[in-house]
Specification:
Elements (H helix, E strand, L loop, with lengths): L1 E2 L5 E2 L5 E2 L7 H9 L8 H14 L4 H14 L5 H5 L3 H8 L8 H17 L5 H6 L20 H12 L7 H10 L38
Helix pairs in contact: 2-3, 2-6, 2-9, 8-9
Length: about 220
């Protein structure tokens, strides 16, 4: 990998990526093929919310490596199946070495499944979350330009909590918004900048956003 001038790394394939996606093949594939692309189906969005919650206090690489085990443990993140989990399921999951064995996060995943089902009466989880899409997206030149939360992520966090969701803090929800394409925080020098289809002008040059600095994802 060779450093570029805009806080990205040039890979052997000639593509520019942020440092967090430049070395680990799993993280690189996730960045190239998935991160920042729109997620507009209930099951996929429910899974992302839960995995972002499991990440709290951990690295995303840890969660990504465990994702196959998470999917097996939580019935493919089918909210109807997870909503029916019992205390016995909780104890089973607490003994599963393939996932993050945190009781509060496991209980939150079940609680979030039930809240997802309840939202169907109000138009569904997808419409509920996507109503918080901002009118503009950050335009980071370097990683320090990327915020860790926003007015919209704070509002989304509060709204989801009112609907019964857990582990949906403002920083976690901003990470969700990044992951599902609601905001484009690909660095301007990245080969993925503007690739979501949601922000057609996102790749055009611009001045610094003035957003507060972020820590590494």
């Amino acid at each position: 990998m060779a450093p570029d001038t805009a806080d990205v790394m040039l890979g052997e394939d000639g593509l520019a990526r942020p440092a967090w996606a430049a070395f680990d093949p799993l993280m690189r594939d996730y960045y190239d093929q998935e991160w920042g692309l729109p997620v507009r189906d209930e099951q996929g969005l429910y899974e992302r919310i839960c995995l972002e919650g499991f990440q709290a206090g951990l690295s995303w690489a840890t969660i990504l490596r465990k994702r196959p085990a998470f999917r097996q443990a939580f019935s493919g993140f089918n909210p109807e199946a997870v909503a029916a989990f019992t205390d016995a399921d909780v104890e089973r999951l607490m003994q599963d070495p393939g996932i993050v064995r945190n009781r509060a996060k496991i209980l939150a995943t079940i609680k979030n499944a039930r809240a997802t089902l309840a939202l169907r009466a109000e138009g569904g989880l997808v419409d509920f979350v996507w109503q918080f899409q901002p009118v503009a997206t950050p335009r980071p030149m370097v990683h320090a330009d990327i915020p860790t939360q926003s007015v919209e992520s704070i509002a989304l966090s509060k709204a989801l909590r009112k609907k019964g969701f857990s582990f949906v803090g403002p920083t976690t929800m901003f990470a969700l918004m990044e992951a599902i394409g609601m905001v484009d925080t690909h660095l301007l020098g990245s080969h993925r900048r503007g690739s979501s289809g949601i922000w057609p002008d996102a790749a055009q040059p611009s001045s610094n956003t003035g957003q507060p600095p972020a820590t590494a994802r």
